[in-house]
Amino acid sequence: MNWGAFYAVISGVNRHSTGIGRVWLSVIFIFRILVLVVAAESVWGDEKSGFTCNTQQPGCNSVCYDQFFPISHIRLWALQLILVSTPALLVAMHVAHRRHIDKKILRKSGRSSPKELERIKTQKFQISGALWWTYMLSIIFRILFELAFLYIFYLIYPGFRMVRLVKCDSYPCPNTVDCFVSRPTEKTIFTVFMLAVSGLCVLLNLAEVLYLIGRACQRCIRSPEEGAKGAWISQRFSTYKQNEINQLIADHSLKSKLSVTKKSPTEKDERCSAF
Amino acid sequence: MSWPILYAQLVGANRHSTSLGKVWLSVLFIFRVMVLVVAAESVWGDEQSDFTCNTLQPGCENVCYDQFFPVSHIRLWCLQLLFVSTPPLLVTMYVAYRNQSDRKRLLEGSGRSSFLSNKCQEEDLNTLKRRRLPIAGALWWTYAFSLLFRLLFEGGFMYALYVVYDGFHMPRLVQCDQWPCPNLVDCFISRPTEKTIFTVFMATISSICMVLNMAELSYLVAKAVTR
């Protein structure tokens, strides 16, 4: 399981996203995951081996590194990307659930041909009703996770600049020693870049929220009798009612078949006589 | 054998899972396998090379490392994930066994009644392959057992990790006096805070998975009782 497999899983949700959602997904994969894997990981690759303290005291390097870098930027970004991308799976689960219900209804109404089932598999759902709420919730979670990680970054590394020199006096360092961080300028550049793209993603998500709300309002204004939520429910209700009628007809025809069994040989004779 | 192969096997078993089972599989692969491969392995990458003891005595570092880290966290988690992923394969095996016996019965039945055409037989065999069995009867018991095993393995490995490392916290400094260390020496662990963060994260996700498994088991029991 790596970023490639993760991309395959998340991009499956793309079919049911809005245009802004697809842009967001592309930004995530190109400007964040790809940059992380291709560039940032090599910048932070020697973060510990290149961290040097002005002392020969064994253990001082490790302890000072641990004090100033409780969790590496790379790991924080990896966790952020994983957590920010997973709310999209809520939408995938909702779509799968809808398809499952549609298949059930189709089977009960006796129209379960492979063609119909295939149509359900490839059907694209409109973002309305319960799906609208699921989608909205997934975007809100995305925004919350992004902001939470930005705040965590701010707490652990106040200021986005990576300093060249840190002073450390934890045991077993004999006194206050100077410790030098490896590649501080390059790390600053990448930190600023990743934070800027993170901010852009938050803006895209906010724009998507506004777009969805706007669309829902537009739909409400056009058809006030049937709210977006009611449309799907009323459609399902009418389908269920139709199923009940179909069931009654099926039961009735079965009963009539069982009561009059002699009809079938006569019919056969009639068919034969047609030849 | 790598993680994508395991994923392919489990996705096959997923067809006969409940919705909670599908959520569990996603949580397993996204929050555990992926985090392990993408993040945790690089944190523990230099665990032995950067384990430093305050001595020049050759062999002291090796011996002290071995005393405090009998099994690395990464290896324990890999084993845990493998053990926890295999009970769903019991379900796959049972479904395969059922399909085979049903196929045999179908072929025997068609052999006796000669008017069944080859095309009808092929169609029936195809539906047999693609059908989704309801979780009832022997399949219910197989599924329930697989859930129980999953719970046992999760709990067992979490307990093992807790016992071996005396909790989920990684200290900065350990003191060691194994031979050939000349006396009590200070040994420093690399990236202890980052390791603690990831250990707590993995333990939390493991507990979430256990809760999902318990919920699934209760759901199955409730379904059986209502039936």
UniProtKB/TrEMBL annotation, chain A:
GO terms for biological process: cell-cell signaling. GO terms for cellular component: connexin complex. Gene3D superfamilies: Gap junction channel protein cysteine-rich domain. InterPro entries: Connexin, Connexin_CCC, Connexin_CS, Connexin_N, Connexin_N_sf. SMART domains: CNX, Connexin_CCC. Residues 145-212 form the Connexin cysteine-rich domain. Keywords: Cell junction, Cell membrane, Gap junction, Membrane, Transmembrane, Transmembrane helix. One of its GO terms (molecular function) is gap junction channel activity. Coiled coil: none annotated. It is a multi-pass membrane protein. Its main location: other. Residues 42-75 form the Connexin N-terminal domain. The chain crosses the membrane at residues 23-40, 77-97, 130-157, 189-213. It is found in: Cell junction, Gap junction; Cell membrane. One gap junction consists of a cluster of closely packed pairs of transmembrane channels, the connexons, through which materials of low MW diffuse from one cell to a neighboring cell. Belongs to the connexin family. A connexon is composed of a hexamer of connexins. This is Gap junction protein.
UniProtKB/TrEMBL annotation, chain B:
The chain crosses the membrane at residues 23-40, 74-97, 138-165, 197-222. Residues 153-220 form the Connexin cysteine-rich domain. It comes from the Eukaryota. It is found in: Cell junction, Gap junction; Cell membrane. Residues 42-75 form the Connexin N-terminal domain. GO terms for molecular function: gap junction channel activity. One of its GO terms (cellular component) is connexin complex. It is a multi-pass membrane protein. Pfam families: Connexin. GO terms for biological process: cell-cell signaling; gap junction-mediated intercellular transport; sensory perception of sound. Keywords: Cell junction, Cell membrane, Gap junction, Hearing, Membrane, Transmembrane, Transmembrane helix. A connexon is composed of a hexamer of connexins. Belongs to the connexin family. One gap junction consists of a cluster of closely packed pairs of transmembrane channels, the connexons, through which materials of low MW diffuse from one cell to a neighboring cell. This is Gap junction protein. The gene is LOC104961680.
